[in-house]
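Lab notebook: predicted structure, single chain.

Context: the supervisor wants predicted structures on file for every construct in the current expression panel, including those that have not yet been purified. This is the next one on the list. No modifications to the sequence; it matches the entry in the shared construct table.
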Amino acid sequence: MLHRAAEPSIVVPPYGRWSSPALAVERSWRDALPILEGEGVRLRELRRPDSAPLHAILATDPVSRYIAPPPASVAEFAQFIAQAQRLRKQGRRACFGVIPRDCNHPVGMFQLWRIDGAFDVAEWGFALGAPFWGSSVFMEAAQLVLRFAFETVGVNRLEARAASENGRGNGALRKIGATPEGILRRCFDSRGERMDHVMWALLAEEWRGRQS
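Prediction complete. Output recorded below exactly as produced.
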């Protein structure tokens, strides 16, 4: 497991400008994910002790209704975190825990994984505990992850899928600036019910344009 002292830290400046530490992180995120700091939220790599609080807040009916089933136990969450760290070392995936300023443990997570070998095209997914829906936590955390994806990893096209019935998830992606590109018919099974997915995409130049 990584200790916090070993993790590189980034304090995020106003959107559109990066301080020099980000240049070093571009080469080192595979060794350890950076800590992404915002005004009201902090993102860091998940650790084994996060298994219990994440299971408690994410393995609930409201959260899991429209996403792939989260790990079913604390032990399975620990296995998931270990796997995420292995994939990060391979340069294939980054998984951040979302920690609001008044919390000492994650209340959600964001994942970013490559679709092509160069990480030029990637997909992301996210889950946030229901008590934090409608707060500023999601939007601030999402902006930090987008900045990491486009400015640090070098993603040019970022995709996301959301169940068509998931009004909250689709609304969040639209608010971020993503574009709906089509419907993937009956591609997702939720508790025995087949659902459509909406395919969303956000390009690096679109994101940079919004920041300026």
